[in-house]
Amino acid sequence: MSSTVEAKDDRLQVRLNAEAKAVLQRAAHYRHKTVSQFVLTTALAEAEKVIRENEAVALSAADWKVFYDALSSPPAPNAALRKAFAKYQKASE
User: What is the similarity comment for this entry (predicted)?
Assistant: First the structure.
C-alpha cells in the first residue's frame, strides 16, 4: 500500500444481523482493526483469491511441455486457416 493518502469516495453498505456484526467486531478486535478495515481487507484478499482461481491457468508439467512446444514450433497453416486469414484481410481493407 502506498504512503500517500487516497480519497475514499465510494461506499459499500451491508445489512447484517446482530450476531454477524458481533462476530465481525470480535475478529476485527483480534486484528487490531476497525470493523470497516477488517471487512475491507478480508473481502479484498478473498476477492483476489477468487479472481486468481478463475483467471489463472495451471498446467501439469506434461501439459506445459505440449503448450510450450506448440508455441515454439507451431504447425504450418492449413487450408482453413489460410482461407480465414484471407477473409479477415479482405474484411479489414
Answer: Belongs to the TacA antitoxin family.
